[in-house]
Amino acid sequence: RAAEVLPCGAMVMKKQMVLIGAATERAMKGFQGYFDVHVVRTAEEFEDLVRERGTEIEAAATSGHYGMTAEQMEALPGLKVVSGFGVGYETIDAAYAAEKGILVGHTPDVLNRDVANTAIMLLLATSRRLIRDNRWLHSGNWKINGDAPHTHSIEGKPVGIVGLGRIGEVIAEKLAAFNCIVSYHARNKKTDSPLTYYPDLIDLARNVDFLIVIVPGGKGTNKLINRPVMDALGQDGTLVNIARGSVVDEAELVLALEEGRLGAAGLDVFENEPDVPEALLNMDNVVLTPHVGSATIETRTAMDKLFVDNLVRYFEDGLIPAPVPECAHLNKD
Ligand code: NAP
Ligand code: 8YV
Asked: Whose CA is nearest to atom 11 of ligand 2?
């Protein structure tokens, strides 16, 4: 086992950790200060590690893209804690972890404001046709054909939020600055929110001009935004998806935009990232970003800190800063 020599000369044995996927240099440094880190990216590399050190691994870190399955956890009998990078953790089998007494952490809250800013950015960029107008200028169209066609304002308009959680609440707060009339859909009505609640998603879509999606991914929300929801939003409606690609039926979205049944879309997330449907690439009424909702230096630094702290604190005092709800009861108080 890797040992660290302290300035006083004493030797400390580092704990063994697996990193499934990749981490920033900053997070790597944090992990390496405490653990002997083994990086694996493929199923073969994971199996090799299991053969060589399976019983010694006590901690795991992973991202939303890679996740961690029940089988991977089962293959590491000494595993005590898993840290996921990102607030969304649908690719980590947290239910299995909870059943086995493995604590899972993620990185909520620190990203709320920047992800909400990305939603507002996409809302404005889509409604004001920022990319189309940028092309209009660069292509010389302004000089040749004059002014770009006028666009719709978001000022004072009805906006629906699908998922009024940590991030959805901040989006609602920011929409107030544009005097938008904000309402929402979730499975449960929030007793502490003054916003109008729609128990029926189609009803919400029918009553707003803009629909912003910010629910978790996974089975419970798979293709929640389907053809009937898009048709209810309608030919003058705009969809903004900042949640997960799986939440929107992407094939139906392309069809709805091509057939003019949906007005416009602003998308940060896609079904098969980093693949994006070819058809979306040149549409004037579509704005695309490559899953950058939280990707500012400030927010990613804060996320990295939580990502590392969730593992380190487990071994220091058993109390991790951000357990996922399924595992909260395992967090020592
Ligand atoms: P959160 O606080 O857990 O809020 C989730 C909201 O979704 C809650 O209002 C919840 O209310 C609602 N919800 C859950 N399942 C639903 C369903 N089946 N139908 C309707 N509503 C449902 O989560 P958060 O911190 O705001 O994050 C939300 C998600 O945003 C993350 O899980 C992640 O997937 C995504 N995200 C994306 C980026 C990006 O870079 N694009 C960055 C951060 C987060 P009820 O329980 O009452 O239904
Ligand atoms: C991250 C995210 O970019 O937090 C989330 O759920 O989607 C983003 O903040 C993503 O997790 C990177 O893997």
From this structure: 86
